[in-house]
Design brief:
Structural class: mainly alpha
Largest sheet: 2 strands, antiparallel
Low-confidence stretches: none
Oligomer: single chain
Strand order of the largest sheet: 1-2
Strand content: under 5%
Amino acid sequence: MAKKTALSKSFIEKIKKELEAKKVKLEEELSRFARKNPHVADDYDSNFPEYGDKEDENAAEVAEYITNKPLEESLEKTLRDVNQTLDSIKKGTYGVCKYCQKTIDEKRLEARPTSSACVDCKKTITQEV
């Protein structure tokens, strides 16, 4: 069973509000050039633009799609992280390192609210010794 958070309710509420605002912003950004996949949570599909049938218009369509695809994937990953963090807040496990079960430092969470690992574990995992 996951360890419950030791962070203050006011700190968690502040982070929750920030993450909820970020979620709305991410969904708005994604909706500008992609549509939500109704079959998979947090998945979007880039729209293929339709400029016309001329060769230069077709090239512009492909160029825009190729530009949007990596952006879509990056925004989706960030949205998944935000949703997972909001879920951990709801479960009362926010701010607990998923590796060592210790409380993640508030400064780390302020800098990166979606962190799920403490600095020590993250360094060990990424071999930043």
